[in-house]
Each structure stands twice: as structure tokens, then as C-alpha cells.
Hints:
signal; mainly beta; single chain; Ig-like domain repeat protein; five-stranded mixed sheet; 55 strands; Immunoglobulin-like; about 0% helix; seven-stranded mixed sheet; WD40/YVTN_repeat-like_dom_sf
Amino acid sequence: MRTRRISTATAFAVLFSSVVLVGGSAGTAAADSSRILPATSLGDIVADGVHQRVFISDPEAGQILATDYSGKVVRVLGELPGVNGLELSADSGTLYAGVAASDHIVAIDTATLTESARYDIGLGTRPTHPALAGGKLWFGYGAATEGNIGSLDLSREEPVVTLDQEPNRTWYSAPVLASSPGAPDKLAAAEEGSSPAELAVYDVASGTAERTAQLRSDASNVSDIAVSPDGTQLVVASGAPYFHQVYRTSDLRAEQGYTSKHYPNAVDIAPNGTVAAGIAGWYDPDVYIYPKGASKTVPVRTYDFPNTGTHSGSDLLEDAGLAWAPDGSRLFAVSVNSEGTRSFRVLTDPTRSVATLSISAPAKATRAKALTVKGSVKASVALPAGTPVTVTRTDAESPKGKSLGTVKTDAKGAFTFKDTPSAGGKVTYKATYAGSAKHTAASGSASVTVSRDAVSLKLNRNKALYAYNTNVSFTATLGKTYKNRVVELWADPFGADKPKKLVKKAKVNSKGNLSVTVNMKRDTTVTAVFAGDSRYAAKTVKSTAYAKVNASLKLSKHYKTAKIGKTSYAYYSKKKNPDFTTNMTYHKGRKHLLTLQLNYQGTWYDAGQQYFALGTSGKSIVTLEGPHETGYKMRVRTSYVNGSSGDSVNSTTHSAWKYYIFTK
């Protein structure tokens, strides 16, 4: 056999062999919101409750960022080289900033966010951390080996700067200062970055700094200090020891510290006495909250920053990077990731212990039989016995949930209840604790697979074979159910180019039947789906019916047609090459098989097979070249062979045999 081109659109390929073709509980609370902060460093952070502003100093960039309470920058105050410590006036009208590199203390109007005054402290003084006490603005100043404390009296017509308020030269470099409105004449100081750390307390009621206590503590590398609202305690955050230290301001005697974690680096105390203790910890919570009068060993709440960089650990809290909103409703923090990107974080509900609610139920249960559900509510601050927990059940009959009432916890926070599910399938029990002034809300859920009765669903026509383009009615028959009588019928013709489609969705008739007519141009799988109801399980059945192709073969170039016995033969001269024309349903890449047979002594024998490509019109002409033997009965047919003809979207189909004979 050979092929020849009959048009530019039809090509013939020759194959000489057959082809076989052959997917309830919460952990440590995280920051409630965050925003990228356009800062290159952090010096200090303070919050203004009157104007709902947060001020953040950036020493490296020489600027102060003014943000709203969400961290959105509303103003950048520049030309402040080396700006570090910040102090807010009692009426929140003025922000004071130590600008070390220019030897100034700058006053900023918090209403207009503009610089209102600039006070020259003296050449080379390098003032850093201002603090208001005793009617004056105090500040640490001095480079290495020149540390001291100075004051700025703003009550006079002309501001008066007084340096060398610490005549004993206690400070190697400029100390960090802290004060509290509750003790207006008390000033605390600490030396940053030294080991061991120097601490001191001063009485400034007279207008001069009179040291009342001094301690060379066992702390090292102090990053931040804070004085309690009543002025009785000094809290220190230092790299070591690994907890936040507490000292009496009267004599700097150590008291029970706040047991945070490794590398304390920040502390701030809210006006109501709540302590926020921060650490530089990659793998531990970053912030620990201790309400006034509560245990110093168990925080009421912790916050663990996420990892926004490339390091394996979380983002780190910046040194001195904590500030309370004056009303204690939220805590502001500045963190930095391994790429040097800083984030402004707003931590809400800081004084409420995070409650976690766990609930468990049997994995499986029998419908209409009682089952037991257990749970517990826990928090770092224990909940009292009798705490109410509301319970709901969601199932097929109550998709929006049905209240099962309220259960109460025991002394250990545990609760239990029984229920008898009337619906089968997935049944979910949700327990909710509403929260309190001391605890956050919490909820949890557990699901049970409740048994349902089996349903009868049948679909006809499975394995039936049809001629090409036949309209076939498929009927699904649904047996007894509870409420749902809807069946879906899907048709999925073979081949990736024909997706599965929903062809009908409706209630079955009184006999339980639902029918759909499918035009069979390809092998097709019809699927019947019953979604189930509250008492009967879902069920899916399939029926695959098969479709042939249209296939015909025509002989041409013969000189006559005559019967041999009862069979019609085409007669060819042995010098004439017959043309075999195949017409077949087209599919991309489809080939047809020509099969030749020869009759010898009454038996038909194979004389050769070969595949040829179909043209896009579904037509193929193949010429059988000589030499041709005369006197032998021969026959030929064309076939589509599922898989071997280049695709598998139809069932194997053979044309009728065409008979021919060669003569002299």
C-alpha cells in the first residue's frame, strides 16, 4: 500500500504495526494589626492620647515619625540629627526630643506637628533622654567618659539650662532617665549598654538632683527603664539576667521581678499600673503583659510576632520599642525583621488573658442515639467555676445552627453535655465562651459523622453500544428517602476537550425516575448523584454507554461490478490500481485502519493492515499499487480502533467489507 496527497489539507501516514494505548483551639495571641514603618532605626516611642498620635524617633535618619493609632505616618519631622529620647508633657501639648548630634532639645507642638522651640544645651553636650520631674525637663547628656545629668527650666521668661547636676561623675556616658506623674519629684536613671549597670534615683523637688539611692546592679546592657505610676518601683530591661528586674525606688533594693524570657530589651508601664515587658526573642513570645497586683511569674497575656524576614525565627522587638496608649486600651510596638524592615504593631486587648476553648466528640455516632461531648476553657488567669459556655449544633436539618442552651464549667474549666442527633451526616457542635473583663472570648468546634441509611439509586444503559449520533434516554431511579428527592444527572463525554456537564437537576417523579436524553457522538459516562438528606446517605452511580463512529468505504477505478455467488465484487484490470476512499467521523489526530484479506480455497486470510491519517474533512483516499495477482477473491474494510486510531473517544467501529477481484 502507499499513500498519495489529494489536497493540501489531507495527509496520509503509514503504520505497519498495531498500537496499544493504555487526588478548635487557639495558640499564643499575635499582634492584632501591623504596618510597615519607614524608619531606619528606633530611638524611642511615646503615645499621645489626646491627639491619638504615636511619636517614633529615628536617630539614624535624624527624624521623628508622627503616626495615627494604626501606624499610618501623618507627618515626618526632619533635620533632627541623632534624635533619641522622647518625653510628652502632662497635657500632651508638647513633645520634647533630645537631639544629640546638634546639642539641642527640641519642642514639638503636638496639635500642629511643627517644631515650636529649639533649646541649645551647649556645644558637645549631646543630650539624649529627656524626662519631666520637679517642674523641670531633665536630660542625660555627654559622650563617653563625660556622662551627666542636666535640667532645662522652662518656667522662666528665658529658659535656663543647668548642667553637671550629678557632681559625683556617676555616669560614664549619658544616662537614660525616667519619671512618673504619680511621683513628680522623683527621677530614675540608668546607664545603657554597660556591665554591670549603674542605677540611681534622685529627688529633684528642690530644683537640683539630690541622689537618694545608687546601685551597681548585676544587670548588664540596659536597654530601657520605667517607673511605676506611684513612683515606688523601677523596672529594668537588660540583656541579662533573663527577666525584667524590679527595684524599690526608695533604696534600689531588688524585689520580685517579672519572669519574661531571654534578653529583655523594653518595658513600659500604663497609667493603671499594667506592665508591658518585651524581649529580643526569635523563638519565644516577644511581649509579656502583667496587670498591677497580678502574679509576676505568669503573664496575663503574651504576643508573639510573626516572621516577615528570611531568618527562621520571628521578627524581633526593637530596644525600648514599647509604648502604652494612655487609656491602656492598646499597646504599640516596633519590631524589625532579618532584612532590617521595621513594622509598627498595634496590640489590642492587652490586659485580658487569652482564653482557649477545646471541644471533643466521638468521631462516629448512630443517629437518634445519645452521644457525649466534652470540652474545656483555659487561660493563664484561671476562669471561675460556673463560667457559662453556649452550645450550638449544626447539621443537615439545622444548617444555620440550633441552640442547645448553656453549660457551665467546673473548677478546672471543664464542661460536658449529652445530645441525641436527629440528623445523620456531618454534625458539628460549637461551644462559645463570650469573654469577660479579664478574659478574651473563645470558641471551638468538633464534628461527628452520624450514620445515615443507605439509599437505592440505579441508572440504566450501562455498557450499551449505539450508532453514532443516536439520541439515548438515560433514566435514574431513586428509592426511599426522607425529604430530599432531587437527583443530578451529569454527562461526561470521553476526551479532555469535552468537560463533564450537569445536564439535569430535578425532583424524581412519583415512580422515583428522572430521565435525560444524551446525543451519543462519543463514549459517554452518565452519573446520577443523590446528595443525601438528614437520614439517608448520599449516593452516586455511573453508567457508561458507548458510541460508534460513522465509517464507510468506497471502491473506485474498477471497470465493472458483478456478483460472484450472492456477493457483489468490483472488477479491476491487473494493470489498474484501485482507490479506497474512507469517510469517517473526524477527530483531531485520528487515523483509520485499512485491512486487506484474500480468499484461498474458501477461507479468508489476512493480506495486510495499515493505518492512515484522516483529513480534517474525515476523508482519506488510499491507492493500492501493483503488481496484482489475478483470479483471487479479495476484500477490504476500514476501521476505527479505540486507542490504536490515535484517540479513545469512541468505540471500535468497522465498515462493511468491500469485495474486489483482479482480472487480465
